[in-house]
């Protein structure tokens, strides 16, 4: 992990086309401005983790429902 110290208004460039700007520092919170092409997705990590967990839960629930339906259909045909 690269750790950099920046002041308000200073920037960090990632690659050729992603730029982070320190907009504000207030207490233990830092506000960043991000300039990137629309083709590059920018998300908060905690939201991605939450979405991944919800998707895994939904997939598991769907799999359970499919198995239950399969059991019912087999019981009716047998």
Summary, kept brief:
The chain has 78 residues and is α+β, with helices and mostly antiparallel strands.
Structural summary, described in words:
42% of the residues lie in helices and 26% in strands. The chain is of the alpha+beta class and 78 residues long. It folds into 2 domains: 7-41, no CATH class; 43-78. It has a 3-stranded antiparallel sheet, with no helix packed on it. Strand 1 (11-14) and strand 2 form a beta hairpin. It is elongated.
Low-confidence stretches: none
> What is the total number of structural domains?
2
The overall average pLDDT, rounded, is: 90
Overall structural class, as computed from helix and strand content, comes to: alpha+beta
Question: Helical amount among residues, as a percent range?
Answer: 40-55%
Layout of helices and strands:
Blueprint: E1 11-14, E2 18-26, E3 29-35, H1 45-77
Antiparallel strand pairs: 1-2, 2-3
């Amino acid at each position: 992990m690269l750790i950099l110290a920046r002041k308000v208004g200073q920037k960090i460039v990632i690659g050729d086309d992603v730029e982070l700007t320190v907009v504000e520092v207030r207490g233990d919170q830092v506000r960043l401005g991000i300039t990137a092409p629309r083709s590059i997705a920018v998300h908060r990590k905690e939201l991605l983790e939450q979405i991944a967990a919800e998707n895994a839960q939904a997939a598991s629930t769907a799999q359970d429902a499919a198995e239950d339906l399969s059991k019912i259909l087999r019981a009716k045909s047998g």
